[in-house]
Design goal:
The chain has 136 residues and is mainly beta. The protein has one domain: Metal Binding Protein, Guanine Nucleotide Exchange Factor, Chain A. It has 1 helix and 10 strands, in the order βββαβββββββ. It has a 7-stranded mixed sheet. It has a 3-stranded antiparallel sheet with strand order 1-2-5, with no helix packed on it. This is GFA family protein. Belongs to the Gfa family.
Length: 136
């Protein structure tokens, strides 16, 4: 069994844990992830929702995501750090934003999605598979 995925927000008021192996590790370049993260792409660790838990006060924001379906992004209610998502099109998963991991060196991107929306700011991922939209 792999060690849990753990992380927290900038101020430490919210901590999370996901038991078990990741289902996927990717970088998403959809415009929603760009705007939410303020970066060219958002590194994401996908885990089973049943294996995910958090402590602390979060602020949830729901909107139509890159999938065309509603998605909820969860941030620390105190410092505003973007922590994890709960996509409505896949309620069995949680998307952890890898920049908040306690050990971000565990993140190993397996693919990029929404490469068609990638900014010129990010040109360093050419060695991993590229998908022009959401991976089916």
């Amino acid at each position: 069994m792999s060690s849990p995925w753990t992380g927290c927000c900038l101020c430490g008021a919210v901590q999370y844990e996901a038991r078990g192996a990741s289902l996927a590790q990717l970088i998403c370049h959809c415009r929603d992830c760009q705007r939410a993260s303020g970066s060219a792409g958002l590194p994401v660790v996908v885990v089973k929702a049943a294996d995910f838990s958090f402590k602390g006060e979060i602020k949830a924001y729901t909107m139509i995501g890159g999938s065309g379906m509603p998605t909820t992004r969860n941030s620390c209610a105190h410092c505003g750090s973007l922590l994890f998502g709960t996509p409505h099109h896949a309620p069995e998963i949680v998307t952890i934003y890898a920049g908040t991991l306690d050990d971000p060196s565990r993140f190993k991107a397996e693919f990029v999605q929404f490469a068609s929306e990638r900014h010129q700011l990010d040109g360093n991922q050419a060695e991993i598979p590229q998908h022009l939209g959401r991976v089916p």
